[in-house]
User: What shape does this take?
Amino acid sequence: PIRITTPPPPFPLGVTVKKGDNKSSEFLEAASEGQDVLIITMAVTTTPEVQSEFIKPAGKAGIPWILPK
Assistant: This one.
């Protein structure tokens, strides 16, 4: 899970922050509902398998555009 130790900066109006377990495909699918695009920005050394953990739930949620690293 992602943990934030300091308060996050304020987000612009219209930005919704969803907190959950980024290892849970159920959470990622639910968080992806209604989105138009998934933009993946990860370290260059990230394996394709890690990206798939985000891409598969996004596809199930119906995101039409996925921009991998």
Q: What stands out?
A: Residues 48-60 form the longest helix (13 residues). The first strand starts at residue 37 and ends at 39. Helices lie at 25-32, 48-60.
